[in-house]
Every structure is written in C-alpha cells, then in structure tokens.
Design brief:
The protein has 16 helices and 25 strands. It is α+β, with helices and mostly antiparallel strands and about 650 residues long.
C-alpha cells in the first residue's frame, strides 16, 4: 500500500465568549485526496459553553511519485495563540478503515480523549456530518476512526458538505500560511531502567560500588605487598609459604614449645651498651594443657660464656653473651649463628631447658608495636606511697631522651600507655641519683612490668579492633619487619598464632627467679661488680634446673611441686624414708620425715586443696580417701605443708609402693 503522511497543523485563535448559545468559529475545509482527482471539503461547527479556544483546521493534498501527503487537523489543548505541527504516518487503508488511534502509556490510568477532528466516519462514508452536542465531561478512550459511536470531544459539523461552507473554506484557507511538510522522523524509544525508577540514583550507586571495589583492591594490594616485604625480611621464606603451614612446631611432639626472647636498645638514642640484651625471657607454651609461662632471666646473672675468645673475658653478666657471640661470630651445629646462638646455648646448659626458637627485638619494636595497636592498658598496683605523685604508684625521675620528661609517673590504677610511655616503663628501674618510688626491687620490678606489658600487647593485638583495621595491621607489620629477628619460618607463623590464641592470659604465669616463692638467686660481688648468682652457689644451677623441670613438665604433680610431710605410723623401720625418696623423684617437695603413733591404715591429711593434681595422685597411690580432719589426726596439725601422710601397717605390706 502506498504510504501516506498526515501532517497536522494546529493554530490556536482567540475566540470571543458567547452566551448560552455557544461560540462559532470560522471553519476550514479539509481535503482528503486518496486519488489524484478525489477531493472532499467539509465545513465544521463546534459549540460548547465557555470554550475559550478554537482550532482552525486546514488541509491540502499533495501527490508525489511514491507518497501521498494529507494535511489534516486536530484540536489544540486549550492553548492560546500557539502553533504546533504533529506528524502521523500511516497507509491509505489505515486511514480508510480508521485503524489510527492514540493509546495511553499507562493502560491502568484513564487516557485523555483524542481524535482526528472532523474525520468521523458515518454509515461507512468518510467525512459525513454528524450532529451531536458537545459534552466535555464525558471523555472516553480515543476510538478508532471507524468507530462512529464513540467520538472524543472536538469539532463536529452539523452543516451540509456543499454550499456556503465551501466559500468559507476558501476564505479561511487564504488566511493560513502554506502548509509545512516535514520529513519522516523516527519515534524515540523510551529508556527502560529495570528495577530502577531513578536512573540518576542508579548511576550514583553504580559508581560508588566501582569506587569501593577499587579501594578494596588498592588496600588489599598494598597490604599484600607490605606483608610480603615484612615476611621476607623477618622470617625465612616468602609470603606464599604462609598458606602452607606446618602441622606442628618444634617441641610439639613433647607437648611444649620454648622460645628465647631477648631485647636490646640498639636503636634507642642516648643509651649506652646498645648491644647488651638487658631483657631476656623464656616464653613457654604448653600445647597439651593450653597453658604457658613467661620467665625473666635477670640481666645481672653471673654466667660462664662457654668460650675464652671474647674480649669481655670467659665469664660475666648474662646480658653480655649476645655481644660476645656477635664478636666471635659464633657458629655451632644445633644453634643459630651469631649472638643469639651463643645466648641460646648458655641458657640451655645452665637452665636445663631445650630452646626451640629465638626472637631478638629492638626496644623500638615495643614502642612501634604499642603505637600500631592504638596503645595498651596497664594497671599499676604499687604498695609504695610516692610524694612526687601524692599517691601510691610508680615514679622514676630518670630522663626520657626523646621527650625530655621523666621516665615514669603513674599513680595506681589503669592507664592507656602509648608507645613512648610503654618503652620508658620497660626501661625504668629506679636507678639513682634520680628520685623514684615503687622500685624497691629495682631490676626485678622492671622485668615484672615488661612481662605485664607483653601480656597487654598480646591481648590488644588479638582484639577485633586491630584485626579488622587494615591501617593497624599495616603498622604492626612495619613494627615487626623493622625491629624483629627470629629463626621462625614463614610457614610456622599461622601455627604459632593458632597455639597462642588458645592460651588465655589468665593461664600464662609471670615468673621471676627472685620471686618470694622461689628464692633461686642471691646477690654477690665480683671485683667490685654487683651481680646475681644461684642460691646454691656460684655456677651451681641445680635448684634452678629442678625448678625449670617442674615448669616444663606436663605432669600436674611435677608442676604443682606440693610440699609433704611423711610420718611413719607402722612397725616397719625406714618406711617413711623410702616413701620420701619415691615422692621426691615424682616431683614433690618433702619437708620432713618423722614417726607417729601406730596406725593400722594409712591416712592422707589435706591442708591445701589447691594442689588437685597431687591430691589425685596420692589418693590413687595409697588407695585411701583423703581427709581434712585434723582433730582426728592431731599429728598433722603441727606441720606447715600441703599434705601430711601418716603411713600405717597396710603401707608396709602393700605390693605396690608409690611410683
């Protein structure tokens, strides 16, 4: 079918309001030329009360070689003095059968009525006049041109086709401008935003998501680079070794991992003896019972270096062993090279402890680590009243080389220490000539504070606030990478973390060799040099070794080291002494051996209920039910011990003596 372009030219004219009779406007003729000689002219009249605008309809026929153009008209939406041009394209058959119609975009909403005014078929005749009054409030969806029973509001003719209307059409057409024929314009499709009615918000969310993803990639890449750099620098291995962890650390086969930790002040400005390891600890993890301990070795402990090649001599304070090993470039199978290797050898030989790993930390490492985690909580509980504080607490008037203030000024209570404060507390021992309070035990107080700081740092580093903060993790990696030397392998890091995470701080003992419960060391002078030696005598570390064996044992009886008194209530001479030897070998501390009144059955009197491991062992060994009744057993009340054992006749005849 030959396509026909319908160009609609609308012109709004001012109209005068009429009375109740309505308003009349000049009608225009419409030419519909479906064939070269076919012409129809129609005059229309529209009446409606209070209608302010009239649409003037004008048309002409233009015939081309391949298209036909019909200029028709449509009503203007009550606008004044405006001109619009609307274009419709359809085939000739569509025009004739009235298939052109306007549909609402939203079928659920009542559409605004529209029509091609003046072209209303009647009885199958195009352009036949239809008489009907104007009903503005009775709008209906726009019908097809062929539906003459449903007409939208508009201009409808009630005058004959011929006659005066034709003259009016000619006169009115002369007043109109020549019709403008427009080229075909494609209909612009409406964009659909699937699930998003606000495309601007959609774009913002999309860009925000891309920016967030980019930041995550950048931060992750930075942390990966830093982790790779620090792991390669500190540990033996690369970053990827971390993801292939070992199943066990050295020492786990026997249920205990021992780490030698040493600290020096090589990076501390203004500090003499930078290579002296003034802080030495043994950190032990019980992998069977998920417990542990930290034992400080005093820096002034007099020791043999095990070599005569050092310029410092063959013996001296233990804090100089590292410097000696560095000087002679220590190298021996089974130990690390250098100063830490020699220190490890000295500790093993004198303390009877098998060292599995070592770590050497600069004092700056403590400061940087504390700053990295955002500070640590430290509780002061001093029994000394300090006039400088006007309260109980710790005070050391020594100078901080960095801040030029005093080293320590902390009243009793909990404080949040930054890195510099933590470092000052780790160094302070109340040395004269500076004023001090709370440092009655000098270096022993200092090492106690160091152990407490390490526990506080362990808690803070493992907290969610640190582990979920990339900035803090990055700073902590820098602190480790710049200040730590160790012989841990990269693939052992995760296993070490896993073991330490299982041990709460409450299950980690903080121990000093000079603690009141130990009495393992004492003061001594060597050529006017003040030092410390074992209580048993210079070079005699037997008591210390026995103590360390108890600490490192997985046997609760050995660890508890319960004190016992053995009384012989049988007629068998020497029975108490034999029993004492066997219990001593088991790890108990036999305080006394004596006689008691005759007893047919053995009695175990419990004076300390805290030693549960020993209590279970004695109950099983002597096949008795322990008692706490000292009234029935008055001999037991005379002794200060954890347990009093009264051997009866049944102990002399038993076939299973204590093992």
């Amino acid at each position: 079918m030959v396509p026909i372009k319908i160009v609609i030219w609308l012109t709004a004219l001012s109209a005068n309001r009429a009375g109740s009779g309505g308003v009349s406007a000049a009608a225009t003729g419409v030419e519909l030329c479906l064939a070269p000689a076919a012409n129809l002219g129609v005059d229309y009249e529209r009446s409606g009360k209070y209608s302010p605008v009239w649409a003037v309809l004008a048309g002409c026929l233009a015939v081309g070689s391949s298209t036909r153009t019909i200029i028709a008209s449509s009503a203007l939406f009550h606008l004044n003095k405006l001109c619009f041009i609307l274009i419709y394209e359809a085939s000739a058959d569509d025009i004739l059968d009235g298939s052109i119609m306007t549909e609402s975009k939203d079928k659920q909403r009542r559409p605004r009525p529209a029509s091609l005014d003046g072209i209303v078929p009647s009885s199958g005749q195009l352009g036949a006049p239809v008489v009907r009054s104007y009903e503005p409030n009775k709008g209906r969806p726009t019908p097809s041109l062929g539906d003459f029973t449903r007409r939208a509001d508009g201009l409808h003719s009630n005058r004959p086709v011929t006659g005066p209307g034709q003259a009016a059409e000619k006169a009115e057409t002369a007043l109109l401008d020549e019709p403008i024929l427009l080229d075909e314009q494609p209909t612009k499709k409406k964009k659909h935003y699937y699930g998003h009615k606000r495309p601007r918000l959609r774009r913002i969310l999309k860009r925000s998501g891309l920016l967030t993803a980019a930041l995550i990639i950048l931060v992750g890449g930075f942390l990966f680079w830093k982790l790779e750099k620090d792991i390669s620098k500190v540990f033996h291995g690369n970053f990827f070794s971390v993801f292939h962890p070992v199943s066990k650390l050295k020492g786990e086969d026997v249920g205990r991992v021992n780490i030698l930790l040493a600290g020096n002040s090589a990076d501390d400005p203004g500090h003499d003896g930078a290579n002296l390891t003034d802080s030495i600890m043994i950190i032990s993890l019980d992998t069977v019972n998920n417990t542990g301990y930290m034992l400080s070795i005093p820096r002034d402990l007099w020791i043999s270096y095990g070599t005569n090649q050092c310029s410092l001599g063959y013996q001296g304070k233990i804090n100089a062993v590292y410097e000696c090993g560095q000087e002679i470039k220590f190298h021996q199978n089974g130990f690390p090279n250098g100063g830490m290797g020699l220190l490890e050898q000295v500790v093993e030989q004198n303390f009877g402890v098998n060292i599995n790993y070592y770590s050497l930390i600069n004092y700056g490492g403590l400061k940087d680590s504390v700053n990295a985690v955002g500070g640590i909580n430290f509780t002061v509980n001093s029994s000394d009243y300090c006039p400088y504080l006007r309260a109980y607490g710790l005070y050391d008037g020594g100078k901080d080389y960095a801040t030029r203030g005093v080293l320590v000024s902390l009243a009793n209570g909990t404080h949040v220490l930054n890195g510099e404060q933590a470092l000052d507390l780790a160094r302070a021992r109340g040395d004269p000539p500076y004023p001090s309070c709370g440092y009655g035990n000098s270096d022993f107080t200092r090492t106690q504070n160091q152990r407490q700081e390490l526990l506080a740092l362990k808690s803070k580093a493992g907290s969610l606030g640190v582990l979920s903060n990339p900035a803090k993790i990055s700073s902590l990696l820098d602190a480790v990478g710049n200040n730590v030397q160790t012989d841990f392998q990269a693939n052992e890091i995760l296993r070490l973390y896993s073991l330490s995470k299982k041990i709460p701080n409450a299950q980690i003992q903080s121990i000093g060799l000079a603690d009141s419960s130990n009495h393992l060391i004492k003061s001594a002078d060597f050529s006017s040099i003040s030092a410390l030696i074992p209580t048993a005598g210079q070079g005699d570390f037997s008591d210390i070794q026995t103590y360390m064996q108890r600490l490192n044992s997985n046997d609760p009886v050995v660890r508890e080291n319960a004190s016992v008194v053995i009384l012989n209530g049988s007629n068998t001479s020497g029975l108490a002494s034999q029993t004492a030897t066997k219990l001593t070998n088991k790890g108990m501390d036999v305080k006394a051996v004596s006689n008691a009144t005759l007893h047919q059955k053995t009695v175990v009197v419990v004076l300390n209920k805290q030693k549960t491991g020993t209590l279970a062992y004695l109950q099983k060994t002597f096949k008795v039910v322990p008692t706490t009744n000292t009234t029935v057993n008055p001999e037991a009340a005379n002794y200060d011990a954890d347990f009093v054992i009264i051997l009866g006749e049944d102990a002399a005849t038993t076939s299973n003596p204590p093992q």
